[in-house]
Amino acid sequence: MKEINTRKMKISQLHALVAVADCGNFSDAALSLELSQSAVSHAIASLEEELGVPLFHRGRHGAHLTPVGERILAHGREILQSLEMMVKEASLERGLQGGLVRIASFRSVATHVLPGVIANFRRRFPKIAVSITEIPHTQGVEQAVRSRRADIGIVTIPTCDEFETRELLRDEYIVLLPPNAKLKGNKFTWEDLASFPLILEPPDYSCSWPIRNYLTAAELLVDIAYELSEDSTILSMVVQGLGVAILPRLAAEPIPEGVQVYSLPVPLERIIGVAVLKDALLVPAVFAFLDTLKGAPELVAAR
Question: Closest Cα partner for 266 from 211, 221, 303, 224?
Answer without folding.
Answer: 211
